[in-house]
Amino acid sequence: MKRGKVPRVDPGRTVAGGMQAAAPGEVTFGAARRFVYKIDLVNDTEIEDAIFGPLSLSHVLAEPAGAPPLAAMKGPLRGEPGDRVGLVIIGGNVAVDLLRSILTRRRR
Known about the structure:
The chain is an all-alpha fold. It has helices spanning 26-35, 44-58, 68-74, 96-106.
């Protein structure tokens, strides 16, 4: 983002299939350059934990592509300075097999 050019990456495999773009769109990139001050990465285990937490505590089902903001705040961005933090966690679009797997592993 600092270079001002849209980056291209090999997205690899992830439970968050909705985030497997090789490059952000121009509008998304422009908004990120304007409003995002830090970017970090989370892994599939952290994403699954971010799905399980709200589901078990509040009955809110975050989809895999919607859970990474919470995963980042619980992990690599924990303790970042700031008075207010807003997370957009979208949900509902979760494959039944993935949800079953998450619930089975977390209930042990």
